[in-house]
Amino acid sequence: MSPSHLLAHLAKKHGHDYRIKTQIQRQQILEEMLKKPWIDPQKQSLQFPLSTSAPIPYLPIFQGYQCPSTTCPYVAVAKETMRIHILKHPEIPKNPRGPPRAFTHHIHIYPRVHCQRFFLSRVGSQYFAVTPSLSLINQELQTTPLSRANRIEAEVNTALAQSEAIIDTASNMIQSHRAPTEASPWLEMTRWGDYLCGYSFQQVALLGARPDPLQEPLLAEFASSVSRIIQQAHQSIQEDKINVFDQVQINSFLQHRRAWDRPLFIQLKKATYRSYEHLWQRLLSFVHRSTQPEQPVQLRHRLTPRQLQHLDEMVEYGIEVLAYQGQITRPLPTVIRGSTLAEAQALLDQACLRDLYESAVVGFLAVLGVDAEKRTFRDAYSYTPSLSGLVKMAQMLVVQEAIIQADEDQVEHPADALDEMRERFLIHGTRSPFAWITRLRTYGKKIQNTTTSLGYIYWSED
Q1: Does residue 267 sit in the same domain as residue 340?
Q2: Is residue 24 located within the same domain as residue 71?
Q3: Domain finish residue from 172, 200, 228
């Protein structure tokens, strides 16, 4: 119980004890207990263990039911409570009113779990799932007086709960596709399973998630920098700082231009621009998170010395921006913007000479393909739009870099830098991450165009 309920509990439940008959005696016990590390749920949020964790000692273990939703950790000890709870989940099919009918009635089977809770009532009294060891369960069964039928039922429920826990853990782990259960040309092409094997879908998805400004202010500053660069590139193209020939050149993935090639299209909807910006924000967040020594997910990609240098500059300038916001005496936002653009170019300009997944960009493509909610990988139909967004933003970032080099007199014309960077890492035939992106995009669209999908026919009166 929480400290605020201890006095009332002693007076009500233990009033017969001569040691705590008076208010002064109970107050002394409370003062002694407050010297110990209490957890007050009304003052601090509780950290619940994972469902695969062992039970917490000295807390009773209950038989409960787990919410059928894969993203909800809710646990209840009564079926009726769980039935009311799933009404909050629109993705779980609801039964129509009236008696059960074939084809329309869904039988919800709630997974059985062992559970505990920290407090008996009010704040912090929710149950959380645990996975006790077999020896602990057997010991509990032996010490609890049960009839033979009840004991057999308890043992069967325990075995089922353990099997479900093992299956649930295994289904959440990413497996290698070297021995697939079914043929998937898309996954054989991407090789995501080999790269991410051994980690859960949720762990991997967090690596490539958008930064939370409250939890990760530094990464949020990186994200803002990406948005500013994209806006600046959009304005530069609108102002024709690169001419129409250069816009056609950057929009082509082939070595030589063709007469029917179109210039780079930038008249996108605001929502499309935001979704495309988010992809590059997530890419830079993935790069930074994966280099942290305390990161539990250790993937095999490696940053080049140039990439590490620009990332260190981004971190240094970002920390300074956060520390001196409102009191900056030099144009730090411009400096961090330049470091972010240099890091983006360094990520694209990496030759894949050995392992394909040595590139951080290629590694991010695998993380981008994870569907944590469904515990699987995204198919080609839903994945290729993300590749199109990465391509579009990469082209705009290279355009902006070429314009900056011309403004700083590093080259005479933006076209000089644009042609040099394009031929090095933005066309087919190069050993670059961008070439792998376009290869995946072409293959994904081929699958998309040759796969039968669900459609609808709308009849009109004409």
Answers
A1: yes
A2: no
A3: 172
pTM of the model: 0.64
Q: Using one digit for the tens of pLDDT, what is the confidence trace for 409-419?
A: 888 888 888 88
Are 366 and 278 in a shared domain? yes
Q: Are residues 192 and 159 in the same domain?
A: no
Whether the pLDDT of residue 292 is over 80: the answer is yes
- Which residues does 211 contact at the CB level (< 8 Å), separation at least 6? 219, 220, 222, 223, 281, 285
Question: Which tokens belong to 232?
Answer: 């600046």
Distance CA(413)–CA(242), nearest Å, equals 9
Distance CA 231, CA 246 (A): 19
Rounded Cα distance between 383 and 344, Å, is: 22
Q: What is the per-residue pLDDT across 81-124, written as a single tens digit (0 to 9) for each?
A: 888 888 888 777 665 555 544 444 444 567 788 899 988 777 77
* 209 occurs within a structural domain: yes
Q: In sequence order, what are the residues at sequence separation of 6 or more whose Cβ sits closer than 8 angstroms to the Cβ of residue 284?
A: 219, 222, 223, 226, 314, 340, 343, 344
Contact 285, 311 (CB under 8 A): no
Residue 76 corresponds to which tokens in the numbers above?
């209840």
Domain housing 287: 185-450
Nearest-angstrom CA–CA distance, 78 and 91: 22
Q: Which of 64-73, 163-172, 255-264 has the highest mean pLDDT?
A: 64-73
